[in-house]
Amino acid sequence: MLFNTIKYGLSLVVAAVVATLLFSCESNFKEVQKINSVSFTPTGEADTLNLKYTDSGKVKAILESPKMLDYGTLKYPFTEFPKGVHVTLYDDQNQKSYVDANYAISYAKTNIIDLQGNVRITSSDGKLLQTEQLYYDQKNEWFFTEKHFKYTDAAGGYLEGPGVDFSKDFKVFNMQNSSGQVTKLN
């Protein structure tokens, strides 16, 4: 009987030690996970942004966004627009084109802008490009995507398919595998 009491008591002690070790390991594991996670804190933040870009006294672009977060002090700096962007672009004849997206992020070192969610580019002459994601290479003034796109011209013609790249003025347009109907203008 004494042996069973000692055995029972020893079992309780071992169970308590094991439970303590398991809970302490869980706590330490969560701490290790926190150490390995990366937490970005913006160095700058702006609400209701209305930024005008000028060159030689002429307005070239207007960027509007409800929210901007600047992560400029990171090793790979970027600027994020978590609530979307609306950009008005002006050409040399002062004609307006528009770029809209639900989300955007601009990478400073690569000069690439990633536009996401209901991306629309509307040109001054009635052309419209729609896709879910579109990249813009600022240095080369070039747009590209691997996502499905639909391009519509002012005459009602359209092209669509996966993947496209084109110049910012829509004059050079390369498609990978598209279909559509092109309307000839006289």
Report on the architecture of this protein.
It is globular, with a radius of gyration of 28 Å. The chain has one helix spanning 2-36; strands spanning 44-55, 58-71, 78-81, 85-90, 96-101, 103-107, 112-122, 128-137, 142-152, 158-167, 173-175, 179-181. A 6-stranded antiparallel beta barrel has the order 2-3-6-7-5-4. With 186 residues, it is α+β, with helices and mostly antiparallel strands.
Give a count of the beta strands, DSSP E runs of length 2 or more. 12
Low-confidence stretches: none
**Structural class determined from secondary elements:** alpha+beta
Task: Report the biggest beta sheet as strand number plus sense, adding barrel if it closes.
Answer: 6 strands, antiparallel, barrel
Round the Cα radius of gyration to an integer and report it: 28 Å
Q: Helix and strand string, N-terminal first? A: HEEEEEEEEEEEE
Q: Strands of the largest sheet, in order across it?
A: 2-3-6-7-5-4
Indicate the percent of residues in helices.
10-25%
Give the averaged pLDDT, no decimals: 82
Number of helices: 1
Specify the overall morphology.
globular
How far from one another are the termini? 107 Å
Percentage of β-strand residues? over 45%
Q: Which helices and strands, and how do they pair?
A:
Layout: H1 2-36, E1 44-55, E2 58-71, E3 78-81, E4 85-90, E5 96-101, E6 103-107, E7 112-122, E8 128-137, E9 142-152, E10 158-167, E11 173-175, E12 179-181
Antiparallel strand pairs: 1-2, 2-3, 2-4, 3-6, 4-5, 5-7, 6-7, 7-8, 8-9, 9-10, 10-11, 10-12
